[in-house]
């Protein structure tokens, strides 16, 4: 194995560890919400207020983290993962009333927002260094661990374990993941430094003057283009989180099923997302427009099926169709952006895209709730279908490009995608 291959392998492994830990946290959190609500003695409206503080902490943290990565490198990733695990324990221990739960959830927002940016920056670098699809696959790892942690947390709650128990397990797991990431990212950085030294020496031997080689100049992606990518991601996240947050309510309210059966809907959705991401993980960025268009159409069709489903079976079919469609959307958007950004600005570019996209994730439950209050839950699912249809139209902005060319850690000037 060449040194370049070993470097790419190290950073791919780091991306896998980061996304696994991130998924484990959110899986445990999602399944722990009922217990957290009971422990804090809140009603649903108070819980909704408390949950807003996740976004309050996340957005500024996401905006600041990109600059930190560009200044200090990918080594900041491991601490963000470790802090995320610790924040879960703090929520479980300190969240005894509305005030303290809100404070603790602000901390969750800060740590999760920072971790979100760092692990996606690692994944973007991994995809570029490896010269093959990585982002969709590591997002599949994330979804898989959401399902695993969610089911595990449910089992612990079923036997009467304290709310802090699953978070304690996740905290240990994040510490282990952080330690492994330190090792793999350090090995990756050492290999890149050695390769850069060889490239610089070779360049000095070949060129007659000390002037900079013209191929080392790269055009920075304009901020408006990054915001455009972020808006695509926001629509993708809005569709995904709409089903993740409201599928259980739809099945129980619209179809009149038992609450215990309805509670399985988010796990079914997450499992379908993970399966699709693994299956589609090998599709390269050259087919990004096709993937985005197909995913958007499936997301819209799935939500439409759900909105009109007369029974549980057809509702599940629609839910799985929507999951398959939304699964490929944000990873593909992130992959497109990743091919265009220069390494010195990768952190800030990823920060911009993920922050804008995160707004869709945060606002999606509110969007569905408002529509549900106005026209009912079935009408709200039609509004979710409209998000997929809008994203389908916006995929025309993405210009196709050739497949990956494996980099040699050089700052080449090739551009793989553009947006209008």
Short overview:
With 420 residues, this protein is mainly α.
Largest sheet: none
Low-confidence stretches: 196-203, 208-218, 408-420
Compute the separation of the termini in Å.
41 Å
Helix content: over 70%
Gyration radius, in Å? 22 Å
Dominant shape: globular
Following the backbone from N to C, one meets helices and strands in this order, namely HHHHHHHHHHHHHH
Mean pLDDT: 84
- Total of helices: 14
Q: Structural class of the secondary elements? A: mainly alpha
Q: List how many beta strands DSSP finds.
A: 0
Approximately how much beta-strand content do the residues carry? Answer: under 5%
Structural notes for this entry:
The chain is mainly α and 420 residues long. It has 14 helices and no strands. It has helices at residues 3-40, 44-72, 77-94, 98-130, 135-158, 164-206, 223-254, 259-262, 265-280, 288-308, 312-327, 329-340, 346-375, 377-394. Helix 3 (77-94) runs antiparallel to helix 4 and helix 7 packs antiparallel against helix 11. The two termini are 41 Å apart. Residues 196-203, 208-218 and 408-420 have low confidence and may be disordered.
Layout: helices, strands, pairs:
Elements lengths: L2 H38 L3 H29 L4 H18 L3 H33 L4 H24 L5 H43 L16 H32 L4 H4 L2 H16 L7 H21 L3 H16 L1 H12 L5 H30 L1 H18 L26
Describe this protein with a few key phrases:
420 residues; mainly alpha; 80% helix; disordered C terminus
